[in-house]
Structures are given as C-alpha cells and as structure tokens.
Amino acid sequence: VAVLAESVDGALAIDLDLSFDPKSLATKEITPGNFFIEPMKFYESIDNKGGHALYSLGSLKPSNRQGVLVNIKFTVKSANVTTPIITFGPRTLVSVRDAKQANIIVK
After folding, report:
1. Angstrom distance (rounded) from CA 78 to CA 101
2. Predicted confidence (pLDDT) per residue in 21-55, tens digit
C-alpha cells in the first residue's frame, strides 16, 4: 500500500497514525517512499494484535512535491477479506514550513 502526499509545499515531517483490522491484516513493514529527499525515520511502532501502527519520518530538506510518503507491506491473514480497511487516526499530521494544509491519500 502506498501512502501519497498531494498539495504539499515545504513539508518537513509526517506522523502517521494507522488503524487496520487485526483479524484480517498484519503490518509486515513500513518503508520511506520517494517524497522526502534523504528521509530519516524518527519513530516506528507496530501493534499487529491491536491493529495499530505509528510511524514518523522527515527530512532536513523541505519537500515541495507530490509523492509516496511511505510504502506499507501487509500480510493478509484471512482469505475472506475482499477490501481491507485502513484508516488514519487523529495523530496523523504533516509538519510544513509555512503551516499550509496537506492531503494524504492511500492507494
């Protein structure tokens, strides 16, 4: 799953607060995408039993483009799942240089 950023100018960091159904999915890996130049991972916590993941990354070089923030690899635990639901929690935020709004999209 690719998490994309659109309409971002001067992004410095991202905090992702993800929830998923632990009966049908398990988070295997979260890796930086191509959005940040020289990305640095600040924090990662994956709770597959509770269906929750926190991930923070950023760069000292502000990003002024659209792109993939992170790639998330999941293991499908149930063959009965047709469309797994992944949601962003209230702690998801994009820190930008000039406090402009950013959109995050899951594809």
Report:
1. 37
2. 898 899 999 999 999 989 999 999 999 999 999 99
